[in-house]
Amino acid sequence: MRNDPRKPAMWCPPQADGVPAVPAQDRRGAASSLPPQDSPAPAAFAAGPHAHAATRGLALLTALSLLLLPLASCAVNQKKEVAQYRRLLDARIHAPRAYDPHALLTLNQALALANQNNEQISLRGEDYVQALIDKNRAVAAFLPTVSLQPSYALRPSPGLGTLRTSQTDRRTQVPLVGNINLFRGFGDTASLHAAEATIAQRRDLLLDLQATILLNVAQTYYQVLRSQRQVSVLQDSLALQQARVADIQQHFAHGLATRLEVSQTQAQADATAVSLIQARNDVANGRHLLAFLIGVPAVDGPLRDSFTVPLQVPAVAVLQRQALTHRQDYLAAQAAVAAARAQVDAAVAEYYPSVSFDAAAFLYPTWLASPSQWNAVLQANLPIFSAGVIQADVRTAWSRLRQAALTARQTRRQVQTDVQVAWRNLADNQKSLRQLANQVAAAREAYSQARSSYDNGLAINLDVLTAQDQLLTAQLQLASASFDRTVFYLDLVRATGRLVPTAQSPAPVAASQPAP
């Protein structure tokens, strides 16, 4: 079939090396949209200074946009971002000095190292930074946006009636487009309030986690001290028992003791040696855990008990009122309720109309039918039927508000329970300390009497072993309880939300009573 002589020959683009050219007729319209080689260009796109200027301007603006894009993405100051939550964390804790794993590690330094190096604290700090960013995003909804939207389009020129033409329109536009939301049913305001409440929630959660980590560090620190005290007690007891084994063996060699007495004495010494091994293992494990919590390779230096528990502590009712004012997790729960309430307002705002204003300025307009250099549109939108989507959003927002309120109520009860339990633990510990001190004195006297009676033939070896075992048990319990008092007091202060990361006691309150 011959080509229609009235139609100009179709133009085919040159092919790359090794790729055969495909006739324009077989390209299913792909090549038909391209201009013919011998057809004149439309008047508006004829070669001339305006067309070349538009092309050069479009290329220049596109190149500048591509160059500025990576610069904008790399403009974040990472140190400044981290400093936003470090200021909160370092407000009451001084930066730690240079760490030496073999030097004395005080509780103050351990807390400062944990505050600086613990990854969990930094992870929660990033949540706080993201809340600040979300607020910036909410503020941006009130501000106009401006963008450059260059475009280059090709389309076949429409023919007149049934007459078809193979000419192609080329359209180049470089509009500068601006948009601003004038009204959106107060939804933007509600979103901003929700973002501010979320910031308060994340801040309180960050401080709550900081207090939890610091308490864990203090507990581990005193766990190591307690294990070391137990090692010291077991070493003294083992030395005494080994001397007792040597003495009973001499008696056995002279026929003054039986083999059963030797075996009983040796068995008790071996049991104490096993307890000593376990206590030393507890020390090593505690030091490894402490090093992990404070973010250092190892803790090989000595530890020192420098914390002084005050003689007076506030009453339970006073502590519970303090906790409801200062406990960070309860404050975070209240902030979550405020954020959820604002989200309800934002969801309800979807029912209201919205108004926006758009404007565009054409830097290089070449649109044939629209030679104007700018346009502006004031647009309103009123939702009439949303297929239940808005209602679902509102119902979900109310459900989340109820969840937040229930969480806050549960947290309030948990705070009061924590204070009551911690106060009772401290009270019982004080009573136990007095009883254990008396028990150690009595056990030491009983052991002395048993040894004297045995030497005078008035008691058997089993009486001595029993008295010795009771003395060791009382000494270990007293050593453990003495360190537990400090831990229980720190737990009580943590329960009130006033854990001060220092080796000094928190500031006393007016209403106080002797320590239970």
Question: What's the arrangement of secondary structure elements?
Answer:
Elements: H1 49-73, H2 78-89, H3 107-117, H4 119-140, E1 145-148, E2 151-156, E3 168-173, E4 175-184, H5 187-253, H6 259-294, E5 312-314, H7 316-326, H8 328-348, E6 354-362, E7 374-381, H9 389-455, H10 461-495, E8 512-514
Antiparallel strand pairs: 1-4, 2-3, 4-6, 5-8, 6-7
Helix pairs in contact: 2-4, 3-5, 4-5, 5-6, 5-8, 5-10, 6-10, 7-9, 8-9, 9-10
Task: Give a nutshell description of this structure.
This protein is of the alpha+beta class. It is 59% helix and 9% strand. The protein is built from 10 helices and 8 strands.
Q: What structural category do the secondary elements indicate?
A: alpha+beta
Strand order of the largest sheet: 1-4-6-7
The coarse overall form would be elongated
- Report the average pLDDT across residues: 81
What can you see in these coordinates?
With 516 residues, the protein is α+β, with helices and mostly antiparallel strands. 59% of the residues lie in helices and 9% in strands. Strands 1-4-6-7 form a 4-stranded antiparallel sheet, with no helix packed on it. 27% of the residues are buried.
Write out key terms for the chains shown:
516 residues; alpha+beta; two-stranded antiparallel sheet; disordered C terminus
